[in-house]
Amino acid sequence: MSRSASVACLVLLCTALRAAEFGWPTSMEPAFTRRLEDFVQPTVSGRIESALFGMTRENGRRFHEGVDIRPAFHDRMGEAADAILAAADGEVMHLNHWTNGPYGIFVVLWHADAKVPHYTLYAHMARISPAIRVGAKVQRGLTLGTMGRTADRSDPIPQSRAHLHFEVGLLLSGNFNRWHDAQAQNRGSKNHHGVWNGQNLIGVDPLPILRAGRADLFEEVRRTPAALACALRCAKTPDFALRYPALTEGEAAGAAGWKIEFTWHGLPRRWTALPEGSPELPKSGWSLIALDRSQRDVLIRRKMLSATGDRPGETLTRQMGILADSAR
Ligand SMILES: [Zn+2]
């Protein structure tokens, strides 16, 4: 290879890497970001694990979809004073200024320029910077606002536990509102967050991404094994498969449905187009077609399976409902 060609390759490589570069989402000194005990904010239990992603709460019965990062700075009143920073280049998709709700005041960014496009979410903020507007392009490191402790009024966060709840993940459906409004339990309750509602977001563990300093969601999704699979009959391709071609296999055009592999926590990690006549395809709707019995216990705790372990649970039913609705 000529010298100029290798320089050109290097420039291209650097451009590609730059797009995936991922920074720490708070203004904490880098020296504190290396050891878990230096940067996490555990629950009142004090257990470090409770600040991490996974079935880390209430003796493994409650899922925590992100990582909780403690403040490094405080104001005179003792409130957290850290700046919340955009973890990567992206676009502002949603701002929630309401102080009442599970995420409190939060910001959602979308990172479209990736093999697997993804969101980052910054919750429990004290305030959002006035310069941050929906539709604005942001660069990695830009200040989005200030760390805080806003949350649901029924479950307040004390001053001593102020933190950033940080999430990274995939968007389930571009048509979430229609599914939301059709649910009996949502009658009379308006969805204020559009597609950026927590139920329509499926997180991955942010820690390996923060540690690597780059976001390779494809690698992250594929690293987590399949725990079960469903087959869905549908005339139209669910928009998830269109948004994430890197996670799909087979011929989408003319497919009669899809085989969807899920991780233990409900992330649809691999999609395979099923032609008419495939033995897995149900006559209508969807069905559970495969199960890794070694993951049965965590699937039950995550409610991917019913308490008896032989039927789809609440989480899987919701995930499949949201995905199937986008194919109507
Ligand atoms: Zn959290």
Describe this structure in words.
The protein has helices spanning 3-20, 36-39, 176-182, 206-212, 217-223, 239-243, 296-301, 314-325; strands at 54-57, 62-64, 67-69, 83-85, 90-96, 105-111, 118-125, 127-128, 137-138, 143-146, 164-171, 201-204, 228-233, 248-249, 257-262, 268-274, 286-291. The protein has 328 residues and is of the alpha+beta class. Strand 15 (257-262) and strand 16 (268-274) form a beta hairpin. The protein has 8 helices and 17 strands. The N and C termini lie far apart (51 Å). The strands form 4 sheets. Strands 3, 5, 6, 7, 9, 11 and 12 form a 7-stranded antiparallel beta sheet that branches. It has a 5-stranded mixed beta sheet with strand order 14-16-15-13-17, with no helix packed on it. The protein has 2 domains: 21-217, Distorted Sandwich (Glucose Permease (Domain IIA)), CATH 2.70.70.10; 225-325, no CATH class.
